[in-house]
Design goal:
51% helix; mainly alpha; two-stranded antiparallel sheet
């Protein structure tokens, strides 16, 4: 029951767009390669998602040397009418709670093994 779920090709509750946005929100100077590894996506898929997020007004980037510096627009409303009036900040807060709970559980599991 504590194992990670097996990967599959079906639908998921959290979209790849939300995963990429959360990864960028966690580190505004992260590389596409690192986002791809974190989200278990290809670099090409991440690049397409970043383009979608920029085109949708959820994200911007500026070039700094050889790197990109991303800026998430937290006050932007989520796309689906049923999510109104939720914003990007609301979504990221929910995902951050999930990550914090997962980290706490992982830490507790490590301590219980010893």
């Amino acid at each position: 029951m504590d194992r990670a779920p097996e990967p599959h090709a079906g639908w998921t509750f959290v979209t790849n767009h939300a995963r990429v946005l959360a990864a960028i929100a966690a580190d505004h100077s992260t590389r596409v390669r690192d986002i791809a590894a974190r989200c278990q996506l290809t670099e090409r898929a991440v690049q397409k998602i970043i383009t979608d997020l920029e085109d949708g007004g959820y994200l911007t980037h500026t070039r700094e040397g050889r790197s990109n510096l991303y800026r998430v627009r937290p006050d932007t409303l989520l796309r689906h009418p049923a999510d109104t009036p939720a914003t990007v900040a609301d979504l990221l807060a929910l995902l951050a709670l999930h990550d914090a709970a997962r980290s706490t559980t992982a830490t507790a599991d490590v301590h219980n093994e010893h």
